[in-house]
Amino acid sequence: MADNEQNTAPQEEQGPQFAVQRVYIKDASFESPNSPAIFMSPWQPEVGLEMNTQTNQVGENAFEVVLTLTVTVKNDDKTAFLVELQQAGIFAISGLGEQEMHHTLGAFCPGILFPYAREAIDAMVIKASFPALMLAPVNFDALYAQQMAQAQQEVTEEAQH
User: Fold this and answer.
1) What is the dihedral of CA 63, 13, 144, 90, to 10 degrees?
2) From what superkingdom does this record's organism come (predicted)?
């Protein structure tokens, strides 16, 4: 009888919930404006990487996070190739406070998406007949902390004026 009473008792609220619903490429672009001449030069690439994230709420407790990577590779001051990729994911997230949610969407989710983006970019580069380009891992927690510190500094400076 005690077992039955436990089953009918109201359930406590569940703690934080997180699940990856889907990971997908939203947009991809590859340009090699100086080919085939670029293949004739000794290969000493200079790699530039720009990153950006965007978040959209797409349903109750459902968020799309888009990680945009733009990779520009130059060789002898000429652009060898330019890759832009929007790696996206849909994440089910609930039970987090505002600050935890902001951190999850701004650092944790992009960290999940980055390996997928890195692999997609590498595949495009190889298919274009360039040497493999494995981007170094990115510490999204450190970038997030840096952005928050910068935003706080801007608020402080505005308050002083």
Assistant:
1) -20
2) Bacteria
CA distance 60 to 66: 18
Question: Where exactly are the structural domains of the chain?
Answer: 26-131
Helix-helix angle 109-127:140-160, to 10 degrees: 120
| Alpha helices, H only, 104-139 | 109-127
- What's the pLDDT tens digit per position in 82-139? 999 999 999 999 999 999 999 999 999 999 999 999 999 999 999 999 999 989 999 9
pTM for this model (two decimals): 0.84
CATH code, 26-131? 3.10.420.10
Distances (CA, A) of 30 to 75, 81, 125, 126: 16, 7, 8, 11
